[in-house]
Amino acid sequence: xxxxxxxxxxxxxxxxxxxxxxxxxxxxxxxxxxxxxxxxxxxxxxxxxxxxxxxxxxxxxxxxxxxxxxxxxxxxxxxxxxxxxxxxxxxxxxxxxxxxxxxxxxxxxxxxxxxxxxxxxxxxxxxxxxxxxxxxxxxxxxxxxxxxxxxxxxxxxxxxxxxxxxxxxxxxxxxxxxxxxxxxxxxxxxxxxxxxxxxxxxxxxxxxxxxxxxxxxxxxxxxxxxxxxxxxxxxxxxxxxxxxxxxxxxxxxxxxxxxxxxxxxxxxxxxxxxxxxxxxxxxxxxxxxxxxxxxxxxxxxxxxxxxxxxxxxxxxxxxxxxxxxxx
Length: 327
Fold this sequence. Notes:
- By secondary structure, this protein is of the alpha/beta class.
- Helix content is 29%, strand content 24%.
- The protein is globular, with a radius of gyration of 20 Å.
């Protein structure tokens, strides 16, 4: 019966978000409504949180930074794990086709959500062509839901992402929502994320809690794009060629970057984070490195992406890490 209803909804141009196996007329407005109406998501989130967090090294890893997405397939010989972390008020999106095993990871923060969601779906469907069986399964991982100040970035982002998926003319089955109160604990009166990041085993589709000390090449350059206001969710990987691809892109010079670099760590933390109380220890160090990169390269179209060429990286067979190549 579900398949017939889905076909009718597609023909009529109606949305077909599926929650706990039931077609929805509208997207859930917030996480508490979702958990109240569909308590099954509490169980699946608890199962994920019960898995010990793995520290994942660089070998076989494709790390997805903020405002990026990457998609691959199970028989990719270059990538074993797709992953992302440092998600305090962001949402990590995992979309997988159950038949082909094609899987995408995106790290969304509210910028470019509609286009990012469309591209994630398109790329997974593209890699799933030729597999008559299977459906799209969506998993969301997001941390905080309650803040000590007046902002509630992540709850608004949850609604935005749910709405973006819901208006696509394809059946999307939400299988995991480890978000909001389910992924929040209170320590010293402060709401902390329980889980900051996840990895996906691209061979099996297994999702597991993870942290990633090595976040891949061009980290400061990639961070500079969104720190200076770049809105697009960039697709950073070509699984057919096995190439990690960064850019080309440009950004406007950051006014006052010299002044920013003179500030204390606490000042940077308080003014450049949406959740300063709970950022991981390396946050300020990464921001400083990114600010320094912007200072050194105020016009990346001129000094970084000469001839408008991307930076390409291929997996080195000996070390297992990404090495730059000319392509």
